[in-house]
Amino acid sequence: MYLRSLQLTNYRNFRRLALSLDDGPTVIQAENAQGKTNLLEAIELLATTKSARASSDRELIHWGAIRANGDGLALAEPFARVSAVVAQRDGETRAEAIIRLIESTEDAATPGASKTFRINGLPRRAVEFVGETNVVSFSPDDVALVAGAPSGRRRYLDVTNAQMSSRYLRTLQRYTKVLLQRNQLLRQVRDRGRPDPSLSVWDQELATDGAYLLHERARSVQALTVCAARWFQELGGWGQKLQLRYRPGLPPPDAEVLEGIPTEADERLGKIRGAFLRALAQTAPREQTVGTSLVGPHRDDLLFVVDDVDLNVYGSRGQQRLAALSLKLAEVDVLARRVGSRPILLLDDVLSELDERKQAAVLRVAGGGGQTILTVTALDLIDRRGRFDASRYRLEAGALNAISDTARTPEPSRRLA
């Protein structure tokens, strides 16, 4: 899978940008605060439909577009657009995401935003859009996958599985809605002080969708841990062994049903659903007391363990960073096997925080096949490791200029923004 071209309009700090991409690695050099992370974020948006950095979609629209609209100037409607031509084994498609500013009915002073998606010009729902473009991204902030809260690790498992399976995303959406309804009912039971017979209906729905999510997460972690352990060694893991341990949101006796899952099977899903329902029955008195659901995928966690030491609690910053990078490279391998083509790898300023051995390993991955887009603050982070064949660009103030591979100096300026 490759991006042939990328176009941005009013996205973050880019007024307008058009970029043609090669199949191999591309290096984008920029000082801090020039937009290199925004550029990679736009590509990731085409894969996941969401930004991991923005608290609101409104933040994705260029401030100048919003201001112009507010002043009654050029734009009839403030918007941002991300569009790309994506090459796959069966041909090329054009993927497009449009973010439009909308007036908020609750707070007119703080307008919101809505997103729409298209494939080859035809509207698609978000659930149909995810998976058309497969991306794996890594930045120094991803150390939070290891050192941060469980919610970040659950989101990682959801994003990874959603790119591999539209069924997973649809099931996750249903589960989230059922969980919300069930929690509302549990709060009513708590406040009224008496049980509600309709709760059993929501239990059945929660267990059905939850069993599939648990199964798919366990299956993915099983595949990821094999590849991540190999990458941990390849990147210089000090002779230690990395393990990923899935901790499902079920009590220990019931969680055992998720051990050793090789493939999806109706019989296996039935056993997981049965374990889920038993866990709900066991925790029912406590749930009705606290007014919230206490078991299920929304309580899952993923542990990073090196030689039986939990890196979240006892790992050094270097171990945590290495484990997170190993996980992302393992994700490339697993996605490639599941969807049949290598995903686009986005590496945002990762070399500056790695030692020379790990830098060399990352560059081997970047240049070893498939499309990789790598951002750096200085080209010497790459050049001191020897020759690295890649298309090179310098990004400054929302403009990209090609850099000659021989002279290492900008060619005549090609204003793109």
Number of strands: 15
What is the name of the CATH architecture of the largest domain? 3-Layer(aba) Sandwich
Helix content: 40-55%
CA distance, first residue to last residue: 26 Å
Calculate Rg over CA atoms. 23 Å
**Major β-sheet profile:** 6 strands, antiparallel
CATH superfamily of the largest domain: P-loop containing nucleotide triphosphate hydrolases
Write a brief structural summary.
The protein is an alpha/beta fold.
Question: What topology does this entry show?
Answer:
Layout: E1 2-11, E2 14-20, E3 26-29, H1 36-48, H2 63-70, E4 79-88, E5 91-102, E6 112-119, E7 122-124, H3 126-129, E8 135-138, H4 144-147, H5 150-164, H6 166-192, H7 199-234, E9 242-247, H8 252-255, H9 266-290, E10 301-306, E11 309-310, H10 311-314, H11 317-339, E12 344-348, H12 356-366, E13 372-376, H13 380-383, E14 391-396, E15 399-402
Parallel strand pairs: 3-13, 3-14, 8-12, 12-13
Antiparallel strand pairs: 1-2, 1-4, 4-5, 5-6, 6-7, 9-10, 10-11, 14-15
Helix pairs in contact: 5-6, 6-7, 6-9, 7-9, 7-11
What would your notes on this structure say?
- The chain is built from 13 helices and 15 strands.
- Helix 5 (150-164) packs across helix 6 (166-192), helix 6 crosses helix 7 and helix 7 packs across helix 11 (317-339).
- It has helices at 36-48, 63-70, 126-129, 144-147, 150-164, 166-192, 199-234, 252-255, 266-290, 311-314, 317-339, 356-366, 380-383; strands at 2-11, 14-20, 26-29, 79-88, 91-102, 112-119, 122-124, 135-138, 242-247, 301-306, 309-310, 344-348, 372-376, 391-396, 399-402.
- It is an alpha/beta fold and 417 residues long.
